Structures are given as C-alpha cells and as structure tokens.
Amino acid sequence: MLEKAADILDCFRPSGGPYRLSELSSRTGLPKPTVHRLAADLVRLGWLERSGTRYRLGAKLFELGSLVPHRLDLREAALPFLQDLFEATRETVHLGIRDGMEVVYLERIHGHEALRLPSRIGGSLPLTCTGVGKALLAFSGEELTEEVLAGPLPSLTPHSITDPDRLRMALEKTRVSGLAYEEQEAALGVSCIAAPVFEGGTAVAALSVAVPRSRFSPAQLAPAVRTAALGLSRVLRGAH
User: Fold this and answer.
1) Strand partners, 49
2) Where are the alpha helices (DSSP H) in 46-159?
3) pLDDT digits 0-9 by tens, 95-118
4) Rounded to 5 degrees, what angle do the CA atoms 177, 115, 160 make?
5) What burial class does residue 212 get, using C-beta atoms within 10 Å of its C-beta: 0-12 exposed, 13-18 middle, 19+ buried?
6) Distance, CA of 75 to CA of 83 (rounded, Å)
7) What single-letter DSSP state applies at residue 204?
C-alpha cells in the first residue's frame, strides 16, 4: 500500500501537477478507485493537498524520504511476529504506528472469523478509540497525553471513551501493565488487546489482537501479544 502511495507522489516530482484523478490513474497504472482512496489518505496525512478536482504537493512531502522507508522496514521486521501471533491466536492481528493523534495501520492479518472492523492497511483511526492507539499514546510522553486529554475525545461507537478522567486512568493502567485494552470502542461486538513496541526506549509501534467480544479472554491473549511485542522490540534494538 505504501509503495502505491509513493508511486502517486512520484508523479509530482520534480515539479509535476496539479493532476486530476484520471491523470494520476494513467500515470501510475492504478485503477481510479485505488488512486482515489490513496489520494484521500495522502491528503489526510498532509502529503497532498486537494484543490477542487486537482491534487498538488502537500506540506509534508519532504518527510516521505525518511518516513516511508522506516515504515517499510518496520513492517518487514514485524511480519514474522505478526504471523506467530496469528498462529497462536487465530484471530485478527494489527501493526500500527502513531501519526499525530491518529494510529496508522501498516499491517493487518485477518482471523478465521471475519470481523467488521474500521481498520485497514494504510488507513488511520483516533488513538483513543483503539487498543493499538492507546498502547502508543500511553508511552508517547506526558505532553501528548495532556494535549489529547485537553481536547474533545472522538467517538466511533457508544462505547468509545469520551471522559478525560476515564481515559487518563486507562492510560495509567497501560503504563503499569504494558498492555492496552479496547472494549467495543472502535467497532461494536469487538474487543482488543495491544502492546507497545520499543526502539531505543521510544514506543515506535504497537501490536494487537482483535476478537469477537463473546470470546475475549485477556488472560489467554495477553501472553501472546506481550511476547510478540517484546520479540519485535529486541529485533529493532539489535538493528542499531
């Protein structure tokens, strides 16, 4: 997905554009619906700007050179651990990173039972409504936590946490246990458990398992999630 997004941005180098969707589709060889979806994601991330029916370079373009390779390297390093986590649980697993106040999903492996989830590879969701997001937020520093708590808290379902005091307590519990929980806060009928991934003392990503609420068993899932996150953290530390 990130490679395709990069193909779209390549159309604008060194001074190309602005372009319509039909032009981007022709230049990249991607179907128009795919270009439309990726362009919308790039606009949200700030890499493209939309003016009417045309797209032009966004303010964040120059982050692409360092950001995309990092994400691709992280995904490649994480895949064995995601696959192990899937084999251990047979449930849907995620890998996500923080981008501002949102979590961006780099990978998702579907469980044997199809879940109706808002997460998708390359897509983003509010940090506070997801297990992956809360795991990242809990270990991203007090300044970000206070900024998030000071603003209106988004809601994806009636179960999303919109009370700052309740969210603060959940984040404190995550810092103590190293695990974040999400109970139908992103999708009804689905619960999630997540753990942060560290690189040099900084939380750079998080892994999660999402399951139907009817069979959500933290005691059984927590060891597998924690083991996968610790394993990936060791690999990232060893790479430097």
Assistant:
1) 56
2) 64-89, 131-138, 142-150
3) 998 888 889 888 888 876 666 787
4) 50
5) middle
6) 12
7) E
